């Protein structure tokens, strides 16, 4: 079986590359993860993308219930590994329930290469069946955020680091780098950063019709972002956001 992992950007159909459109039209089955009523918009966005670009009516679209992580397990890595095993089982069951397929696609937010576990789950699936995996790259959310603010990701001749809210909160600002791109931050870890000399560029639902952005000194923009996140989550039931932090060197 061929498994195509297709990067779809941040949910905007215009983010699909021509390669992604061709790949999507080459499969027999598209699997759509469903994460409950609160996140029904995410499944609907994937279905809308299929409706916009699929030209072959023979391509089947099947939803499956996405397993959730067990919050009772105190080990983060153990929770994630168990979760990935459960997702691999859900993929296997969904393909079987659909009557099997030779070419199956999964639509991946952004790109499978950056803070996404689809490739790791595909490795688990490959242990259960003969499987060939193909990746079709997509636009990543850091690109979309930088474009929304009209800024480069890196300062002149300088590196930047992509990390998560959990790592920023637990480990602090990494040494040797002045620019951070922070993803997967449900706890607003920027609140743990001493704000003096720090700028933030933030975006939620970047690239989507409901995109929200803010920017400025962390001391000023931070409280605005907290309020905007709370309001957006209350309105939509979910939020996807990302931000850039940049320190101005002393002197």
Explain this structure to me?
The protein is of the alpha/beta class and 251 residues long. It has two domains: 2-136, Cobalt-precorrin-4 Transmethylase, domain 1 (3-Layer(aba) Sandwich), CATH 3.40.1010; 141-247, Methyltransferase, Cobalt-precorrin-4 Transmethylase, Domain 2, CATH 3.30.950. 35% of the residues lie in helices and 23% in strands. It is built from seven helices and ten strands. The chain has helices at residues 18-24, 40-53, 76-97, 118-126, 141-149, 165-171, 218-236; strands at residues 2-7, 29-34, 60-65, 103-108, 132-136, 161-164, 179-183, 198-204, 212-217, 241-247. The strands form two sheets. Strands 3-2-4-1-5 form a five-stranded parallel beta sheet, sandwiched between helices. It has a five-stranded mixed beta sheet with strand order 6-7-10-8-9, with helices on both faces. Strand 2 (29-34), helix 2 and strand 3 (60-65) form a beta-alpha-beta unit. Helix 3 (76-97) packs across helix 4. The longest helix is centred in the middle third of the chain and has 22 residues, at 76-97. The chain is globular. The mean pLDDT is 91. InterPro entries: 4pyrrol_Mease, 4pyrrol_Methylase_sf, 4pyrrole_Mease_sub1, 4pyrrole_Mease_sub2, CobF. It catalyses: precorrin-5 + S-adenosyl-L-methionine + H2O = precorrin-6A + acetate + S-adenosyl-L-homocysteine + 2 H(+). It is an enzyme of class 2 (transferase). Its EC number is 2.1.1.152. Keywords: Cobalamin biosynthesis, Methyltransferase, S-adenosyl-L-methionine, Transferase.
């Amino acid at each position: 079986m061929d498994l195509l992992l297709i990067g779809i950007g941040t949910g905007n159909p215009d983010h699909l590359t021509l390669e992604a459109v061709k790949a999507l039209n080459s499969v027999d089955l598209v699997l759509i993860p469903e994460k409950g009523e609160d996140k029904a918009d995410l499944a609907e966005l994937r279905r809308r993308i299929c409706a916009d670009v699929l030209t072959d009516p023979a391509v089947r679209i099947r939803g499956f219930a996405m397993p959730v992580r067990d919050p009772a397990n105190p080990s983060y890595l153990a929770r994630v590994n168990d979760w990935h095993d459960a997702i691999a089982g859900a993929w296997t069951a969904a393909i079987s329930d659909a009557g099997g397929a030779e070419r199956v696609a999964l639509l991946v937010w952004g790109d499978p290469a950056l803070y996404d576990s689809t490739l790791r789950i595909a490795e688990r699936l490959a242990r259960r069946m003969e499987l060939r995996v193909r990746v079709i790259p997509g636009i990543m959310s850091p690109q979309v955020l930088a474009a929304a603010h009209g800024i480069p990701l890196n300062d002149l001749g300088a590196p930047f680091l992509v990390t998560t809210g959990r790592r920023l909160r637990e480990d602090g600002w990494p040494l040797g780098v002045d620019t951070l791109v922070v993803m997967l931050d449900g706890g607003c870890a920027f609140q743990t950063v001493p704000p003096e000399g720090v700028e933030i560029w933030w975006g939620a639902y970047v690239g989507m019709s409901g995109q929200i952005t803010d920017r400025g000194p962390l001391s000023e923009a931070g409280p605005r972002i907290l309020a905007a996140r709370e309001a957006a989550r209350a309105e939509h039931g979910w939020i996807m956001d990302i931000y850039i932090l940049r320190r101005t060197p002393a002197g």
